[in-house]
Amino acid sequence: MKVPVSYSFRNLWTRRLTTILTAGGMALVVFVFAAILMLAEGLQKTLVDTGSWDNVVLIRKGSQSEVQSGIERLQASIIETQPEVAAGADGRRMLAKEVVVLISLPKRGTDKPSNVIIRGVSEESMAMRPQVKLVEGRMPRPSSSEIIAGESVSRRFTGAGIGETLRFGMRDWTVVGIFDAGSTGFSSEIWGDADQLMQAFRRPVYSSVIFKLRDASGFDAFKTRVESDPRLTVEAKRETRFYADQSEVMAKFLRILGMSLTIIFSLGAVIGAMITMYAAVANRTAEIGTLRALGFQRRSILGAFLMEALLLGFIGGAVGLFFASFLQLLTISTLNFQTFSELAFSFTLTVEIVWQALLFSLVMGFVGGVLPALQASRMKIVDALRTS
Amino acid sequence: MTDPVTACDGQGPPVDLENQPVIVEVRNVNKAYLRGNHVIPVLQEINFDIRAGEFLALMGPSGSGKSTLLNLIAGIDKVDSGTIVIGGVDITALDETELAHWRATNVGFIFQFYNLIPVLTAFENVELPLQLTGLSRSERREHVEMALRVVNLSHRMDHYPSQLSGGEQQRVAIARAVVTDPTILVADEPTGDLDRVSAKEIMSLMCRLSRESGKTIIMVTHDPKAAEAAQVIRHLDKGSLNDAHP
Fold it and tell me: Which of A27, A81, A86, B25 has the fewest CB atoms below 10 angstroms from its CB?
């Protein structure tokens, strides 16, 4: 039979200061743990949300990103004639030949330069990305040096606000519109006319071809055919997969860094919990003897002290998560290692992260509590009672 | 100054032990402790019986082995040799788990320093041993309320030990000891930490449990006044029973 849970809980309450300090240490570790997971999740979510399931991205075989890719005009035309390409309401093919280049722009306030993606788009580009909406100004006129900027870019980079001018590719470009792409990677891009940008940057080839599938289930057959076509040295990916792959290295880096930091911090928190629990056992030796004398088994004592340590961990976990949840209000920007461009994203808290953080805090409580609990359960009744 | 009125005055007659069965049989019990490399004998060849309803006081100087004997009878320590049979069960043959089960239903403990759990209320302290039984919540409540009524502390059931006086805490401990209606009650210096008035109240309560409820009580005490409440007094000296003691 178990010692009542109220016994463990009230003992923690009685030693409020020690409990707060120990749980506080654990809360800090859980905060760091959750923050790292939220960071990685936010990055992945931003990039994955950037893509649509029924869009296909084609880049040169072996390229890691659009910046490294090159697709010749002839190859782009061959792709355009494929039967899987959907047609729009006006009968035009839902396909965009895009060019992607990286430029360095100074940040507002600090003038510190950072890389920004310039995407040369065609008329269909917007229609294929329903998440991208013009929120201010107008679309650029074809064959002009006009551009539109993502909200995140216009906010953070000098000259990227509406009506302002940016100089790159030996030309001045006027920002005529601001678009909102939600929490996707497009928010961190500048869009302009593909042909104008190719001329400005003297790029004879496109970076990628994007099209909407006529039938979303036809992707596998298309991929197999196109990738074995000797005229095309391209790789086809669903747009969602393409952007997920882009976030993989960065997310993995964040997770490994985060886990390493968390493990080091958690050692401190576990030792703190262990000291607290050893002190609890030492202070309650007579109680342990009494409970055992009354007929409670060794495992009941073990359970009671483990419960106390787990409660300590749970409190730490809940507090750490509570404070970590406020990180969702922050938007941060960092360099994506795969595209070498600046990417803005938010910390994202998911149910999975909540469970992982709570489980982690319980594990810390358990590891910190198991040795003291074992010590408590192994006491000889007579010796324990003698400390009364 | 001695009090001319004893704890049992005004209570019913003691249990007629002649007609009561033997409930505790202690046979050839030996116990020694190892201190460093030295073996220190504590009890040697102890033999005696306790009858059902008997109120036995174990007396003797410090180090005579009386608390050790009490611990052995209560099943919280192990004999080196010999047997202790209580209610037909040879407790020296039980393993640790069996012994814990046996204690839960057969032994009520009363300690010198009350040993109440400070974070639990009087009610919850008394309920603790009942957590080990299969009783429902309402049945447990009924038993606890009755035990607290016996010790006249129903009105303090929601108080924590720190909110009670020493005498009240010991009465809660007695309620905890009797709540499971155990075969024996063991008390180690139950008045050792109390003032004279509280000590007398406690002894009066124990006397009532013996005479009115027929409880078998084994009490270790230094206090001759407390021992007066017992029907039988046995003296231990240097680990041996010395019944020739005056």
Answer: A81
Give me A339's structure tokens: 């595209």
Mutate to test the interface with A, among B34, B117, B189 (most CBs of A within 10 A): B117
d(CA A48, CA A343): 13
Q: Looking at residue A157, what DSSP letter applies?
A: B
- Measured from the Cβ of residue B161, the count of other Cβ atoms closer than 10 Å reads 19
Cβ contacts of B74 on chain A, cutoff 8 Å: 293
H or E element, residue A100? strand A95-106
Interface confidence: ipTM more than 0.85? yes
Q: Which residues pair with A139 in a beta bridge?
A: none
Q: Distance between CA atoms of B119 and B124, rounded to whole angstroms?
A: 9
Residues in chain B: 246
**Dihedral of alpha carbons A366, A368, A369, A372, sign:** positive
CB contact under 8 A, B103 and A295: yes
- Give the β-pairing of B184-188 and B216-220: parallel
Sign of CA pseudo-dihedral B216, B218, B223, B227: positive
pLDDT digits (tens, 9 = 90+) for B17-69: 778 899 999 999 999 988 888 889 999 999 999 999 999 999 999 889 999 99
| Strand positions, DSSP E, A122-194 | 133-137, 146-150, 165-168, 171-180, 189-193
Write the CATH number of the domain with boundaries B52-76+95-241: 3.40.50.300
Please tell me the distance in Å from A275's CA to the nearest CA on chain B. 21
* Closest partner CB to A388 (pick from B113, B129, B132): B113
What residues of chain B lie within 8 A of the CB of A8, using their CB? none
- Identify residues of A whose CB sits under 8 angstroms from chain B CBs: 1-4, 6-7, 10-11, 13-14, 286-287, 289-298, 381-382, 385, 388
